[in-house]
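Notes to self, Sigma-54-dependent Fis family transcriptional regulator:
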Amino acid sequence: MMSPTILIVEDEDTLRQSLQRVLRREGYQVDSAATAEEGLALCRATRYHLIISDINLPGMDGIEMLARIRAMDADAIFIITTAYGALDSAIGALRAGAYDYLLKPVKHDALRRLVRTALAGTADNRSDAPTPDGFDGMIGIDGGLRHMAAELRMVARSASSNLLLLGETGTGKGFLARAIHAASARATKPFMAINCGAVPEHLIESEMFGHVKGAFTGAVSDKTGLFVAADGGTLFLDEIGDMPLAMQVKLLKVLEDGEVRPLGGTRGRKVDIRVISATNKDLTQAIAAGTFRQDLYYRINLFTMSIPPLRDRREDIPALVAHYLARHESGKTMSAEALAKLQAHGWPGNIRELQNVVERCALISQGEEIEESDLPTALRAGMNPIDAQDRGALSIEAYTKKVILEHQDRLSETELAKMLGITRKTLWEKRRKWGLLR
Ligand SMILES: Nc1ncnc2c1ncn2[C@@H]1O[C@H](COP(=O)(O)OP(=O)(O)OP(=O)(O)O)[C@@H](O)[C@H]1O
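result:
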């Protein structure tokens, strides 16, 4: 079998030569060019499987060259090299169809690995067969998440860019992180997760980086940290906004160096990790308030994706309900009236809340069909209605008044107070102020 052909376009002589040497040693046929114009000329004569190019070149830049080569050969795979400070242009390259990017200074290990993954299955028989798409079965990918579909595929393809997922609680940030991992070239390697808000501060460091025996009281044996356990794969940092500042500094250092050292250990270890972080906090506000480091923020969010709350993707509710009912294996279905109620609900707890409601209904309903009367009281009573989202337009006071007037006939004072998130005493005081005492 003919070995794959690679073209390197790099204006820095020593770098170009070293990249060429590393890849030749791997058995590839490698040509090189010092400018985009020269690279284009070579591409007219030879079809390369893979092109590795710097973005910043004298004359025509790497992205322009990418577009021109693409026009001649739609199958060529591009890897872009870029300095950390110019990551924006790497994102531009990914959007223009580059397979992935490598940060300068290019690490030989990372280069070998990425080239191998990029060429896997393409060597010598570049086919038109579509690659399997890890998102095909995901609920909402053709519905309320369809605006994210293209971006998701791009993010999965670029297996090394760190990603930040934003969304309210229960919108599926953890679910999406897993899906992205599973659809990426890292799929055969581990996916590890940690909730930065749930692990006590003094344990986070050893959870993430591990420790050696005797590092602190209670460290009775060596412990492997998540970074090492996830090597080659994906690390999911949930609630990153809750990470203590001291830990943020340490995390930043690991992300910069690609090396972790266990607590009490003397030697570092290289790791290759994609970090997917998630938060329901406004990190820019946290940065302004001094509780989140800006430099870490830049490291973790090469890409940002916002997952819409369930109330903004009501079209997905029937499919989600069907999914959770099928999983319950009771054969029960949801009546049209009950489904209508579910679609009118505001779902402050998003998909997780929906899942709980459906599972509970499947358990308690008597008949084959889940009726409106099987739904939780709060939901039937129209608490947290979908139009609660309009409250943003009202002042809190006006909203509170509206809720009291709308619901006081069928709710007790305790239920009303709970719905408004205030105490009964506060509710009474507001009633008195507005002359609404019962
Ligand atoms: N597209 C989807 N299809 C099916 N189930 C989903 C989908 N998205 C999320 N879920 C389910 O919804 C539940 C909540 O998702 P997940 O735990 O990922 O939310 P989250 O945003 O990470 O929440 P939190 O911020 O509270 O940790 C999970 O049980 C998950 O399996």
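- The mean pLDDT is 86.
- The pocket of adenosine-5'-triphosphate is lined by residues 138-140, 167, 169-175, 238, 278, 280, 323, 351-352, 355 (CB under 6 Å).
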